[in-house]
Write a structure and sequence with these properties.
With 341 residues, this protein is α/β, with parallel strands linked by helices. The chain has helices at 38-44, 93-96, 137-141, 143-156, 171-182, 195-203, 217-225, 240-249, 270-276, 288-299, 318-327, and strands spanning 2-8, 11-16, 26-36, 60-68, 80-83, 86-87, 107-108, 120-124, 128-130, 163-167, 187-192, 208-211, 232-235, 255-258, 279-282, 309-314, 334-338. Strands 3, 4, 5, 8, 9, 16 and 17 form a seven-stranded mixed beta sheet that branches. Strands 12-11-10-13-14-15 form a six-stranded parallel beta sheet, sandwiched between helices. A two-stranded antiparallel ribbon has the order 1-2. 45% of the residues are buried. Bound molecules: zinc ion (2 copies).
């Protein structure tokens, strides 16, 4: 089978690898779609801190069950599926308290251990989730990023009646805003400085899509929410200057939620957190329930993922993908790799 392996930064090889053998608790999946994520781009550039080459990428996958091991119940050949791409130890303190998404020995398929960028992938049945027949494989590849969003919103707690502003209208920010809206928020606004991303946010039905070029976040929040301001500010931008604007714009007893991946320390005005009793939450990854909620919201059309896919590439053109993304930062949203027919 065809498998694409990153051998070092900027270098990949196309291998003719054996189709994986499956154990009795495993499912063999014929991969059909794999989404490309920000972390994949970091790996390509050799800037991902916590991985080693070589690695087969791919943690946002959708495919069809080819066959199942002898002890697997609940899946059969032909089922559409996605994979929750986390390997956790089950023994460390976070795992024992149910927070296996921040396992101290966490490995993610396609980052720290082999991923799905191949014609076939074998996964333990416990990490496989069934997709409804009516869901397209394209949508199936967006379940993982949607689960990042449902995980983030779960951590925010009850959003009923809340004013929520999401900073950054990339794929994750867009999905976070949509999930917030589907979770009972009173009003949801999303901000960006990229008009194309704001157009996509509008196409997804996000109520207020605000171009913040030349504007202070505090003013945008007052304009959108009035004197109640924002109950929850969710940072999906990952830009130091924007984070400090978010701190300045946080109201008394509001929540400031960090979803974006920061690569270096950020200096903040700590006294504002203390005096305003701002809760800061860090979001790393999802739990199984977040995948289930993402699939449910997508199935009920409570969130719309179709406008997020900007480009498709066949896996045999994988070498063109990252240069294309690098050359088109303003127009690329989610790139999906097609495998097979
Ligand atoms: Zn991802
Ligand atoms: Zn653990």
């Amino acid at each position: 089978m065809l498998q694409v392996k990153m051998t070092e930064a900027f270098k990949m090889s196309f291998l003719d690898a054996p189709v994986p053998e499956i154990g009795e608790d495993e499912v063999l999946i014929r991969m059909k779609r794999v989404g490309v994520c920000g972390s994949d781009i970091q790996i390509y550039h050799g800037r991902h801190k916590y991985m080693t080459f070589p690695v087969v990428q791919g943690h946002e996958g959708a495919g069809v069950v080819e066959r199942v091991g002898g002890k697997v119940a609940g899946f059969k050949a032909g089922d559409k599926v996605t994979v929750q791409p986390q390997v956790f130890c089950g023994a460390c303190a976070p795992c024992r308290s149910g927070h296996y998404n921040v396992c101290q020995n966490l490995k993610v398929y396609g980052v720290h251990t082999g991923g799905m960028l191949a014609e076939y992938f074998a996964a333990p049945a416990a990490k496989v989730l069934r997709l409804p027949d009516a869901m397209s494989l394209d949508e199936g590849s967006l379940v993982e990023p949607a689960a990042v969003a449902t995980g983030a919103i779960r951590r925010c707690g009850d959003l009923a009646g809340a004013n929520v502003v999401v900073l950054g209208a990339g794929t994750i920010g867009n999905l976070v805003a949509q999930v917030a809206r589907a979770s009972g928020a009173r009003k949801v606004a999303i901000t960006d400085i990229n008009p194309r991303r704001l157009d996509i946010a509008r196409a997804c039905g996000i109520p207020a899509c605000v171009d913040t070029r030349g504007r202070k976040l505090k003013d945008v929040i007052l304009e959108q929410f009035g004197e109640d301001e924002a109950d929850v500010i969710i940072d999906c931008a990952g830009v130091k200057a924007i984070f400090n604007e978010a701190v300045a714009a946080a109201r008394c007893s509001s929540k400031l939620v960090v979803v974006a991946n920061y690569k270096e320390p950020v200096e903040v005005e700590l006294p504002l957190f203390q005096r305003r009793e701002v809760d800061m939450l860090g979001i790393m990854m999802y739990l199984r329930q977040d995948f289930e909620r993402a699939i449910d919201l997508m199935t009920r059309k409570a969130i719309d993922t179709a406008p997020l896919i900007s480009d498709h590439f066949d896996i045999r053109r994988m070498e063109d993908v990252y240069p294309y993304i690098d050359d088109n930062p303003d127009s690329v949203m989610k790139v999906v790799i097609d495998i097979g027919d």
